[in-house]
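Researcher: Please generate the 3D structure of the following complex. Treat every line as part of one assembly.
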Amino acid sequence: MGTKKHPGTRILVVDDEPAMREVLELRLAGWGFEVRTAPDGAQAKEAAESFQPDIVISDVVMPRMTGMELLESLRAGDPDRPVILVTAQATVDLAVEAMKRGARDFITKPIDYPKLRAILARAEEEVAERRESRRLEAELERGAGFGDFVGGGRAMREVYALIETVASSDAGVIISGESGTGKELAARTIHRLSKRAEGPFVAVNSSAIPENLMESEMFGHERGAFTGAASMHAGCFERAHRGTLLLDEIAEMPLALQPKLLRVLEDQKVRRVGGGAEFSVDVRVLAATNREPREAVAGGKLREDLFYRLNVFTITLPPLRERREDIALLAQAFITRFNRKHNARVEACKGETLELLRAYAWPGNVRELKNTMERAVILARGPWIEPSHLPPYLLGPAGRTPGLAPAPGITAAEAEKELILGTLRLTGNNKAEAARRLGLDVKTIRNKLKAYGIK
Ligand SMILES: Nc1ncnc2c1ncn2[C@@H]1O[C@H](COP(=O)(O)OP(=O)(O)OP(=O)(O)O)[C@@H](O)[C@H]1O
Ligand SMILES: [Mg+2]
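Model: Done. Output below.
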């Protein structure tokens, strides 16, 4: 971290002694900083306005306005700007007072230049990070995203365009993508932008409901239709009338039920289980899956006729590791969100933290990033998210993706496997805990283990 890392960093030097100003100016300029000087507090305030320094170095004992007073008034204008105080007579009291009033650092005359240089390097880094976080905030304010989607990278802009296109029609859409990539968010966005926005949005997850209850969940049942059916139950189609129904995890839909579903989609008519008359429903159906939909058809998990009926459009959400350009912005958006939720005041990620976030493979995608940021906001005491606020597995090479990882020739799938197994080892084979740490569903972990052939 050299001081020349960010050329153009501006420093204002305030001292009533001309010789001191000159010496400091020469040194600082020699280190590559842009320097202005001021002989007293009043002129320093003017210079702060016109020169907009990133860092201020000020003498403490000066006629008229002391460095302490100057510090106070500068901080009133910009509380984030680092101010470093310099004094000939350092006392503990003075140092304590300076820190209490928000001085970044405190050094004594004669100046220890290597020490000053180290202090400046740290301050400069902070300035750069603050700039980056302002840039990200500005980008968020400009609405770099779409609806509740954050991120304006090329991959996602294509997704946004597709969402917009399909929203205006009533056609079926299959939304595919790995776990946590935003499939449900995409479905809700389509609904919100469609002419059905005023109607209900209902999501039914085929893998979360026991197979024998699925039919009544979808189509409803009459009272007494089967043991335990104590009262009439409205199915998802009825509840989604004049709105949108999301069939989540469509590839997990019981095969026996798929022909019935197809019929309802074609006729827009439902009959409750154990019920008499058919009645009409007006429902737009979206489907989501974290498999490749055509593979689900080929593998016999999804009937081909149903697939064609649903798949007028396909939207594929790219995994987070393929849109690293959005990671910093997403992290910042989650910081803002979780600051509010946890009443915290985190500003941003340290540069190093961002590097780690960008390097990680994110098997749990945006959901995992979201969980990681929530944890970090809770752990961070100060304004910055440091690498130490990230889960340990994010710091090691195991979580790195190929290309960024030192291991040559490792594929994303291998890296993911390594990560999942590594996390399981860390958690003593506790699948639920490993799932939580990775931001994955337990179900996903089970499926992956099955695919690896591990019991
Ligand atoms: N681009 C994004 N910007 C902001 N938040 C996002 C983005 N993508 C996803 N999220 C958030 O991440 C979380 C996971 O998204 P969502 O539930 O839509 O994923 P999913 O693909 O349906 O996952 P699963 O396959 O596990 O059901 C949600 O809280 C969602 O709001
Ligand atoms: Mg989902």
